[in-house]
Amino acid sequence: MNIAIFVSGSGTNCENIIRYFQGSESVSTALVVSNRADAYALERAKRLGVPAAIVPKAQLNDPDIILPLLQEFRIDFIVLAGFLPLIPDFLIDAFPRRIVNIHPALLPKHGGKGMWGHHVHEAVKAAGDTETGITVHYVSPVCDGGEIIAQFSTPVSPDDTPDTIADKVHVLEMAHFPQVLEQVFEQLN
Fold first, then answer.
1. What pLDDT does residue 42 have?
2. Which fold has domain 102-189?
3. Whose CA is closest to 55, among 77, 44, 39, 40?
4. Which of 21, 71, 76, 26 has the alpha carbon at shortest distance from 50?
5. By 3-state DSSP, what share of the chain in percent is helix, strand and coil, each rounded to 5?
6. Torsions phi, psi of 48, nearest 5?
7. Residue 99 backbone class (left: φ over 0; alpha: ψ -120 to 50; beta: rest)
8. For the chain, which residues make up each domain, given as ranges?
9. What is the set of active-site residues?
10. CATH hierarchy code of domain 1-96
11. Among the four 20, 47, 67, 164, which has the fewest Cβ within 10 Å?
12. What is the per-residue pLDDT across 38-91, written as a single tens digit (0 to 9) for each?
């Protein structure tokens, strides 16, 4: 199975996934796609020998650009790992139940438009939540509204700041995201 990882930022999850599946006989990270030319994830992909493409939002929304790119690399599955633009409906239709996202909170709490990265951790703190975590879910036309595949939680103490909450969530992402993907891929075979 050839996967494409879509990223917008530094790419720690992207690198973790690439490394996890290196040497796998059934899963290959065939392409990293970023909407930002300055995303450090592109450098991580280059260092790990994975081809990368820069696809700005306008091109992402153009089926005549993004679909041929994914076909060129024979992509079977798309993993969103800190990818900020909404996935267009035509791409969801082209990859039914074959696009997953990781969200840095326990959906349905703190999801939806504008809820990404530090905004989520600030919302968790402001709400006085006693736990947060990660949600891996299928991508649907509704932002953060797709079927939940797995969730993992971590406690939030009154002393936590958005930064310490982010650190706790990052630990969960590193520990669980690749394994959840592996389980999803195994179910497809």
1. 97
2. Rossmann fold (3.40.50)
3. 39
4. 21
5. 40, 20, 40
6. -95, 5
7. beta
8. 1-96, 102-189
9. 103
10. 3.40.50.170
11. 47
12. 999 999 999 999 999 999 999 999 999 999 999 999 999 999 999 999 999 999
